[in-house]
User: What shape does this take?
Amino acid sequence: MELTRRELLCRSGLGLGAFALADLMGQAWADDGAALNPLAPKRPHFAGKAKRMIHIFPNGGASHVDTFDPKPALETYAGKPLPTGNLKTERKTGAAYPSPFKFRRCGESGLEVSDAFPKVGELADHLCVVRSMYTEVPNHEPSLLMMNCGDIRFSRPSMGAWLTYGLGSENQNLPGFVVLCPGGYPIQESQNWQSSFLPGAYQGTFIDSQHTELPKLIEHIRSDSGSPKEQREQLDVLLELNRRHQEKRREEAALEARIQSFELAYRMQMDATDAFDVTREPQHVREMYGPGTQARQLMIARRLLERGVRFVQVWTGREQPWDNHSDLQPAISKLAKDSDQALGALIRDLKQRGMLEDTLVIWGGEFGRTPTVEGRAGKNAGRDHQSSGFSMWLAGGGVKRGHVQGATDEFGVHAIGDGKVHVHDLHATILHLMGFDHEKFTYRYAGRDFRLTDVHGRVVKEMIA
Amino acid sequence: MSTTLRIAAVLSLVSVVAWGQEQAKPAPVDAEGLEFFEKKIRPVLVDKCYSCHSADAKKLKAGLRLDTREGTLKGGESGSASVLPGDPDHSLLLKAIRYGKDDELKMPPKGDKLPPEVIADVEAWIRRGAPDPRGGGDSKAADLAKARRHWAFQPPKDPPLPAVKQKDWVKSPIDAFILATLEANGMKPSAGADRRTLIRRATLDLVGLPPTGEEIDAFIKDTSPDAWEKVVDRLLSSPLYGERWGRHWLDIARYSDTKGYVFQEERRYPYSYTYRDWVVRALNEDLPYDQFLVQQIAADRLPLGEDKRPLAAMGFLTLGRRFLNRLPDIIDDRLDVLCRGTMGLTVACARCHDHKFDPIPTKDYYSLYGVFASSIEPKEPPLIGMGQKTPANLEYETEVAKLQGEVTKYREKRHADILAALRQPKVVADYLMAAQEGKSLKNDEEIRSLAQKKDLIAFVLGRWKSFLDKAAKAKNPIFAEWQEKPVRETADRLAAQLAKADAADELKAVLSGPESPTAVALADLDKLYTRADRDKQRQLENKVEAFKASHPGAPQRAMAMEDGPLHEPHVLVRGNPNNLGEKVPRQFLSILSPEKREPFKEGSGRLELARMIASKDNPLTARVIVNRVWGHHFGGAIVRTPSDFGFRSDPPTHPELLDWLALRFVEQGWSLKKLHKLILATAAWQQRSDDVAAYKEKDPDNRLVWKCSRQRLDFEAMRDSFLAVSGQLDLTMGGRPVMLSENPTGKQKQQAETIINTVGDPTQETFSRRRSVYLFIDRQNLPGTFRNFDFASPDTHSPQRYTTTVPQQALFLMNSPFMVDQSRALGKRPEVAAAADAPGRVRALYRIVFGRDPSDEEIALGRRLLDQPPPPPVVWKPGPWHYGYGEVDEAAQKVASFTPLPHFTGRQWQGGPALPDPVAGWAYLNAQGGHAGNDLKHATIRRWVAPEDGAVTVSGTVSHKNKGGNGVRARLFSSRSGELASWTLKQLEAEMKIKSIDVKKDDTIDFVVDFRGEITDDEFVWAPVIQMKSSSAANGGQMIEWNAASQFAGPPPAPLTPLEKYAQTLMLTNEFFFLD
Assistant: This one.
């Protein structure tokens, strides 16, 4: 968070006006501007290893036993019931269903990744794979809320809202918390990125990344009624009128803040155009990410992170693409193929730019899937929801590299042992990496101090480099 | 604490957060230590020790009490101190939990040793001095007695008016309280504001709109002594007042027009608006606030007479989130809005454990819970409409009956089909086999899992099982063979016999007699349903609900509650509905009840609860509302945590004033209008808003009211003011919500589309011009515009609005179609158009926008924009879709002529501004469909022009819905291959899928609709999707898609003229946005 004055000037796009404002208020800029500019950069409790974060959300519940948690024991029991019996999940499941994907050891760490994700596997030495995730309920809605907001039912601020509330954003010309999802909303919709009782400024800005034209990406970003030059002339007159008005009201910082907001908005129009236009990436970068929507949205995400956006969440698609109750093998093959190259490229790209060490990358959804089969075994077989054990991975941002955290039992049903990671623990760990003591990072509302981790959460030190 | 001291304490709290954030009160001694206790120590004591060592213990062990500070320090029968602050090694408690040597005390007993980190915590806590906020006494009664001393639980006292020095400033007793505090701090009030400022401030404050130039002039010229009073009276008697202040109440009531996240059911509340309209009316009629509350909590229990409209008041309770219909969560939300909203009590904290700070035990929570668990929402909400049925009402009723009939029809058909399937011999044999296998199963759970395994219906299997049990007992000969040899072969043979048409009656009765296991009643149909059946029925039911929520003829109903079966509440331990604790009566909160508390007696107790809340003896209710009203008028309340008056609340800046206001409010019949009048008549409120540097430093938040704080317009006042000055404000009151914009995204869009489709009005604007209080509020996906302007979150009760400044606000103001529309309209107002020259136009605009004349410099500044050349006309390149009319050459099988429809309304293309057009007649096209033209020469044509070579697939549906007329003919033509398809439609829908049409670049595909010889009710829906496998050089092999609905477009709006741009600029100024 140690921004130089010069950096701040550039990134905030505020120019000298911001400092005039800070002086006017007789206050230090970094921590006290919140009332006027809720997204002004702020310092966390301590210097976090990560400064920004991207959460890639394979929504629907990606199967762990087919991706990042190999279970050879399922082969032994193939077609037979598990000796431990089946969990009560949403639907009926049958016999053990060994993964149709092969796992191989990757990198120096020898971390096992399935061949659904060969390119991600190449980067195994950068990954911290958590195989012992667990959450409360094997239903999408409560688990989505838990993963995003830390509670299975009540209206609570999302992780992105907490982070932008706590850290502000390093770019005032773009929203601080951006949500990309092609084609529409995931299940549970905008509650996944809600600000709840935090101010509306901390809510995620949803962008349908299926679109390629900017005006469809960000509301009101373009004027239909004149050129930028004409708008500049208009804003100059506005500025002049506001300055005259302000002369007799010099002490009122809110007036200055509003004056500045027009200048920011004017610049946002340019910066957003630039940030969302992936055609400005050089050819070799676009080739590295590959074709398709997932590649495009990950490239957009990287451009946003690079410009100082605090938190970007990238969903696979509307509703729940990874909810593979049937046709699991072809579905996962396609879903993984659509994103594998781009995910690998994202990590390489961040690394090449020197951003990986302070950018926390996480890949993981609301829960995993049963190792037992749903429907009939064979080509159309599927798996049901499973909340008692699933996988996700993290990279960059101060997490241990080439590390496997925790485990599930031999069939992949339950997270077991001391290394279990509840979603609250994941949140505590993420907050820690971002520089917050999750127990002290609170907000007073309705007579209570609320936290992302409610009254739970353990910082999983083993995952931290 | 004397006033001076308290003020000093307040002033030490220099805060940088926005007004709107509830702030912490000053840190008590060793706040960190107490926090440590709350987080690390108390939970362990509660979980591990209280069961034997507290007042609630069944049998107190060793005389040791660990639930009070005193007991914890003193220890039990052993005689040695349990906890010796600062000295862990001599604290018996620590010794016990350390599980020392064999002969020593070991707690918790039976080897349930605490984890080492917990023991370390206890040690650290004792070393720290054992900070412990719990009552020093040893009973809950003592805690309660102490709690009662908190200022908010004390009855308001009528304070003597304080003596002040600057007597001539005091216009009202209120001023004396304000001035006394200022003087005690060595400060002086600000001078009075001028009349222009005052009337602008009062008008926006009371009615949420700016005053007109005439109103300002009239007040400035009025020299009568009651000039001000007349202004305030006029504003308070305007119906606009209820819309403005009603919205403030809707924040408290977390009002929304939707249920929040639901899985499949209709999201909209069909009658939410009747609550909103009730609130507006109640405020306009100045319904006494106590009755205002009672009606919202228990109107169903009041003797209402003919006028049932107050039933709608209970929307206060019912319009919350539905949490996927989980009742405990729904009740929790209702308790929260009730207690924080009316009494500033954070009761919801006590759902899982006794409130940590305030005197709200979990038992009290469940006493109130019982009241709401004993109340239900009637399945069909009660009618509140008055008067005669309109034709729209009648149409509505017919249509609802028809849609309802579809549901019934579906149910009956599925019922017959499922029963027939259950009587198939193979199925019967399956059930016989399964029943045999499950012979020994006792409980339903086991039967369910067996049925699941066998792919059978559990309910039917259960019936077969008991049927066969009975048959066995009765030695029914039909089943003799089966019982002897229960194998598949026997089952098949028996099943075949049973199913035979010519079987004897006893045999037939097994499958079709009244006792038959397969004779499941229609009422039990749901138990036979598969997921697909349920989904399908839900779909049909949703059609009914969506229709109810959108048809203009739907009669008004109240989202009411009524008493249901009485629920005897238990504490739900840790909030878990499966963990029943102690039984509690339905009764009011202990802290607000007399020593001897009586359980509620009448039904659920809701009315008694309402009366205890809305009582003059309730120390909170009047204080809470006068504080809220004060907060809105001054931009900062006396208690700055307006929905939390508990121990952690901000202490009142002017406690005596708060009491004085509360008492006068009750004395004056709980009249909000009288309260406004009282406040607006004060010198305090009439102060200028200018800053005083020295005071700003001392009291930056103006807690001492040394000026009237400058306030920014909130979202509603802003939007309504734009519409007011543009001259476009639609002052229609009440009714169903209207959409902020018809061009929203995601789910909003889907919802907007259903509304448009069901209440289609082709002339409707692309956004509403009604007052903002009537906008559709979707709590699940609130449009960004609301959020960006700090609109209250409709999720839960909202104590205050935030005031943030983000660039998205400016983007809306600069670029949104709404603002462009207001700017255009303002520029075109007759007063502006009538002006002879540029300075005249500037003057006219200043008068409309600011209610004042511009200075010469301001005129010159205005001319910088006004004197610019007009913008060049826009050149528009339409996409692949074209909208027109024309004629088909029947002999050649080709579209012979195509004339573009020339006029775009913002929603659709048509012949001219009015329908029918002299040339094109009724022909129009919009995103979803259109209307046929008046004859065959004017058939409506939606045309797609191929941008490259390829093979095209056309899909979608085409339909005609209206009853009248003879329907329409829809035809599809390719310029290369002639007619591709044709449909004649009258109240019909057809699927369309036409594959592999070869096209070359610039070929056309035409969607032609004609009137079939009779131009009546010829609206149609036809929004095709075209997919093309490209064969062009550039894109060969790629699939490209065009969607007529989502790509529907008109020309971009003309750019703003210099005058309109200037008009917009004035509306964006701080002068317009801030109230001096």
Remarks:
- The CA atoms of residues 127 and 395 of chain A lie 5 Å apart.
- Residues 1-35 of chain A have pLDDT under 50 and may be disordered.
